[in-house]
Design a protein that fits this description.
The protein has 162 residues and is mainly alpha-helical. The chain has one domain. 56% of the residues lie in helices and 0% in strands. Helix 1 crosses helix 4, helix 1 crosses helix 6 and helix 3 packs antiparallel against helix 6. The model has no long low-confidence stretch (mean pLDDT 90).
Length: 162
């Protein structure tokens, strides 16, 4: 299954009310809520998180913190976002960037997305939530599928409130 199809499948689960909240710790649930609440303002962070999570599902051995080919052990996420994720988010009428989340200067820095990432994501709460979710996926083996489904459910909720 490819990137677009995986995103559509997970979106379907979210729309059908599938819940993975019980499989996520409270801190991860709170971080998902933070990203969802700010997804219309911090679209880059939201888009990058979805792209990285889908990549991890399809390539489980890849360390998604290494988000650029120029980082040792890295890969090229921007192409996947530009060709598959952002167009699919638009098709699903979800918040999305014009082209790619990696065009956001604070996210395009050539450093791994570790807890001490130096990129200047303007909202510090969103930055912490984003990095902690990525850390949960890589260090705590949190299933990225659970994160995406819960994120999309929350985005829908907050979108309806706007």
């Amino acid at each position: 299954m490819k990137y677009k199809e995986k995103l559509i499948t997970l979106y379907g689960e979210a729309n059908d009310g599938k819940s993975y909240a019980s499989k996520l710790n409270n801190a991860t649930q709170k971080n998902i809520q933070i990203i969802a609440e700010k997804c219309f303002i911090q679209k880059g962070v939201y888009t990058v998180l979805i792209t990285l999570s889908i990549y991890k599902i399809l390539h489980p051995k890849q360390d998604i913190r290494n988000h650029q080919a120029q980082i040792k052990g890295g890969f090229s996420e921007r192409t996947i976002d530009t060709q598959f994720i952002t167009p699919t988010l638009k098709e699903l009428k979800l918040p999305s960037m014009a082209e790619s989340g990696w065009l956001t200067r604070s996210l395009e820095q050539p450093y791994p997305y570790t807890l001490d990432y130096n990129g200047k994501i303007s909202n510090k709460t969103v930055k912490t939530a984003f990095l902690e979710i990525i850390n949960d996926i890589e260090k705590n083996s949190t299933n990225p599928k659970y994160i995406i489904v819960e994120l999309l459910k929350n985005v829908r909720l907050f979108g309806n409130l706007c």
